[in-house]
Design brief:
GO terms for molecular function: DNA-binding transcription factor activity; RNA binding. Monomer. Binds directly to the core enzyme of the DNA-dependent RNA polymerase and to nascent RNA. Its main location: cytoplasm. There is one protein chain. The radius of gyration is 37 Å and the shape is elongated. The protein is about 40% helix and about 25% strand. It folds into four domains: about 130 residues, N Utilization Substance Protein A, Chain:P, domain 4; about 70 residues, OB fold (Dihydrolipoamide Acetyltransferase, E2P) (Beta Barrel); about 140 residues, GMP Synthetase, Chain A, domain 3 (2-Layer Sandwich), CATH 3.30.300; about 55 residues, DNA polymerase, domain 1, CATH 1.10.150. It has about 400 residues and is α+β, with helices and mostly antiparallel strands.
C-alpha cells in the first residue's frame, strides 16, 4: 500500500465516522509516530506531513552525515558513503532528509499502523459520544427497541447509538416489543472500559418533569416552574408548580381544560395518577396541599426533627393515607419531612372500630365485634383481663389495640 492509497482509505473512514480533517490528521500523525518509535526506537528524527485534502502523506527521515564506521545511532546518523548514494555531493556534518514510503516500514508496521488508527478513531468516537450524552443527562431521548433481554432492553437512537433501559428503570406495567418506539430520560452516562454506557430511565422524577416541559408551553417558556416532583412509578405522582405571572394559574395551566394537557403525560406513564399542586413557602398550607384530596383538621409541625403530625376527620383518613399509603408517603417525600396521620376525634364522640382497619388487622377487629365491642370507646372502657378472657386474644395484641385507640383520642 502506498501513501496515497492509505490516505484515500482513511478519507472514506473519516466520512463514515464524521471526523473532521484536523482531527484525522492528528490521529494519523500520532499513529505514525507510534509505528516509527517501535521500528527505530524514537520518532525524534522524523517529519510527518499529512494532507487529507490532497490525499497525500509524506514521511521524512532526517539524519546527520558522519564518517564511515562512526555511526552510533542509525536513526539519527548516516554514514557518508550511504548519504552519497542519495546525493553525491553530501559532506560530513550536513543533514540528509530521506523520503520513506509506507511499505519501506515493512508489512507488519503497516498493519500495526492500521490497527492503531482504528483504535484511536474508535477512542475519539467514544470520547465524543460520552461527552455528548453526558451533557444530555436529565433530557428525554427517543429510540427504537432493538433487543429485549431479561434484565434490560437495548434501545437504538436514529444514529444507531446503543442505550440501555434496565428493568428497575421501567414502569412496572411497561410492556415492550422489538421495533417499537420508546421515550425515556438519560439517567446516567458512564464508561465501561473505553466504551460509554448510556443508562435510560422511565421511573425517574426527571422523566415526569421533562414530559411536563414538553407538553406545557408555560413550563417550557419558564413562566411556570416545577418546584418539586415525586413518584411511585406507574401508581401515583405529585408535582408542585409555581407561576411567575400572577395572571396564570399554574395548576390549571398544567392540567388543561378537562385534563387535556396532562392526559398525554398520564398515558405515557401508564395511567400514573398525577396530583398537581400549587407551591407555597407557607409550610402549613403546603402540607395541606400536599395531602390533597384529604381535608386537614389541624397540623403540628416539628421543623427541628422534620416531622409533621396531621389530624383529620375519621372519614378523611383513607384519603390522607391513600391506596397502599401512597398519598402520605409522596406528600412526605415532596416536603422532605415525615408525616404521621391521626384521626381528629372530639372527646365526646366515638368511632366505629372498622375505621381503624388501616392499623388493626381485620381478624382482630372481628374478635372484638363478636363480643359486642364495635367502637373505640367500648373497648377502652373494658378491663384488659376481661378482654383477654372474652376474646381469646393475646395480651400483647390487646395492648397494641388499646394503644392505637388511645392515641386517636389524645389531644
Amino acid at each position: 500500500m502506498d501513501n496515497i492509497a492509505l490516505i484515500e482509505s482513511f478519507g472514506d473512514f473519516k466520512d463514515e465516522k464524521n471526523i473532521d480533517r484536523i482531527t484525522l490528521m492528528a490521529i494519523l500523525e500520532e499513529s505514525l509516530q507510534s509505528v516509527l518509535r517501535k521500528k527505530y526506537g524514537s520518532d525524534d528524527n522524523f517529519d510527518i506531513i499529512v494532507n487529507p485534502d490532497k490525499g497525500d502523506l509524506e514521511i521524512w527521515h532526517n539524519r546527520i552525515v558522519v564518517e564511515d564506521g562512526m555511526s552510533e545511532d542509525d536513526s539519527a546518523e548516516i554514514e557518508l558513503s550511504e548519504a552519497r548514494k542519495i546525493e553525491p555531493d553530501f559532506e560530513i556534518g550536513e543533514q540528509v532528509s530521506e523520503s520513506i514510503a509506507l511499505m519501506d516500514l515493512g508489512r507488519r508496521a503497516v498493519l500495526a499502523l492500521r490497527q492503531n488508527l482504528v483504535a484511536k478513531v474508535m477512542e475519539h468516537d467514544n470520547a465524543n459520544l460520552y461527552e455528548r450524552f453526558k451533557d444530555m443527562e436529565g433530557e428525554i431521548v427517543s429510540g427504537e427497541i432493538h433487543h429485549i433481554r431479561h434484565k434490560h432492553i437495548i434501545v437504538m437512537d436514529d444514529e444507531q447509538n446503543e442505550m440501555i433501559l434496565p428493568k428497575e428503570n421501567q414502569i412496572p406495567s411497561d410492556y415492550f416489543r422489538k421495533g417499537e418506539s420508546v421515550r425515556a430520560v438519560v439517567d446516567e452516562v458512564k464508561l465501561k472500559g473505553i466504551k460509554p454506557q448510556i443508562i435510560l430511565s422511565r421511573t425517574s422524577p426527571k422523566f415526569l418533569e421533562k414530559l411536563f416541559e414538553q407538553e406545557i408551553p408555560e413550563i417550557f417558556d419558564g413562566i411556570i416552574t416545577i418546584k418539586g416532583s415525586v413518584r411511585i412509578p406507574g401508581e401515583k405522582a405529585k408535582v408542585a408548580v409555581e407561576s411567575y405571572d400572577d395572571r396564570i394559574d399554574p395548576v390549571g395551566a398544567c392540567v388543561g381544560m378537562k385534563g387535556s394537557r396532562i392526559h398525554s403525560i398520564v398515558r405515557e406513564l401508564k395511567n400514573e395518577n398525577i396530583d398537581v399542586i400549587n407551591y407555597t413557602s407557607n409550610l402549613q398550607l403546603y402540607v395541606t396541599r400536599a395531602l390533597s384530596p384529604a381535608k386537614i383538621s389541624r397540623i403540628e409541625i416539628d421543623e427541628k426533627n422534620s416531622k409533621v403530625t396531621v389530624y383529620v376527620k375519621p372519614e378523611e383518613v383513607s384519603k390522607a393515607i391513600g391506596k397502599g399509603g401512597h398519598n402520605v408517603r409522596l406528600a412526605g417525600k415532596l416536603l422532605g419531612m415525615e408525616i404521621d396521620v391521626f384521626r381528629d376525634i372530639p372527646q365526646d364522640e366515638d368511632v366505629e372500630l372498622a375505621e381503624f382497619s388501616d392499623e388493626i388487622d381485620a381478624w382482630v377487629i372481628e374478635a372484638f365485634q363478636k363480643i359486642g365491642l364495635d367502637t373505640a370507646r367500648s373497648i377502652l372502657e373494658q378491663d384488659v383481663n376481661d378482654l383477654i378472657s372474652r376474646t381469646d386474644l393475646e395480651e400483647e395484641t390487646i395492648q397494641d389495640v388499646i394503644r392505637i385507640l388511645r392515641e386517636e383520642f389524645e389531644e
